Amino acid sequence: MARCDKFIKQLAKLSYSRAKQARVVLRLALELAVRHEVLPRNPMDHVSRLHREPHVPTALTAPEVNVIRAAIAQWESAANHISGPKPDGQLGAIIEVMLGTSARIGELLAIRRRDIDITSAVPSIRLAGTIISRNGELTFRQDHPKTAKSTRVVALPTFTADAVRRRLAKFGRSSYAGVMAADSDDSDVRRGERNSSRQRDSTTHR
Fold first, then answer.
1. What CA–CA distances, in Å, run from 165 to 23, 41, 113, 123, 188?
2. Is residue 35 domain-shared with residue 93, that is, in the same domain?
3. Is position 69 within any domain?
């Protein structure tokens, strides 16, 4: 028991998750030995519980955010792009909306025009979906975020509201991409969303 306890504690100093996994594996292996009467009892039953160090969230500082903004602005304003699509302001808008809403990237890309209220005294965005991509399947929009309870309305700070207005003014109702997901039916995402819905209906009727 003492050797098992020492081993787990030493491993925990290197990695909590690795020590937790090792504790589970050792318990199962030694339990098998007990069942086959190789050991009289499982020494892992008395090993001390693991204690994870408190996790301190990290966040970008204001100067770091400004460096990112400057780098994106420089890239988007460059005249000569060797490869890839020509920048259309999408990346800059994505960063501003992420900073202003703390939305996950999938939630952000799933925002539709109907989710945006930019004319009220307090502009807001409703986060009510996420983008799902699986191997071998069309990318589609799921009609709720990571969990069903994650749907929420977020008030926008001025810099985010300005970015949303610029995006709307540039693309109007024609764009589904990026943070301004219009309600057009000709995008891969919308086709994937409809196909996913049909697949769910087909599974339900079987």
1. 53, 68, 11, 10, 24
2. no
3. no
Residue found by looking up tokens 């975020």 in the block? 145
In this structure, what are the phi and psi dihedrals at residue 30, rounded to the nearest 5 degrees?
A: -75, -25
d(CA 175, CA 124): 19
Give residue-wise pLDDT tens across range 122-137: 999 999 988 888 888 8
* Structural domain harbouring 12: 2-46
Task: Based on the fold, state whether residues 97 and 16 are members of the same structural domain.
Answer: no
Sequence-ordered list of residues with C-beta below 8 angstroms from that of 61, at least 6 positions apart, any chain: none
Single pTM value for the model: 0.62
Joined together, the tokens standing for residue 137 give 């399947």
Q: Are residues 112 and 199 in the same domain?
A: yes
The model's pLDDT over 78-112, given as tens digits with 9 standing for 90+, comes to 767 777 777 888 888 999 999 999 999 899 988 98
**Cβ contact 69:93 at 8 Å:** no
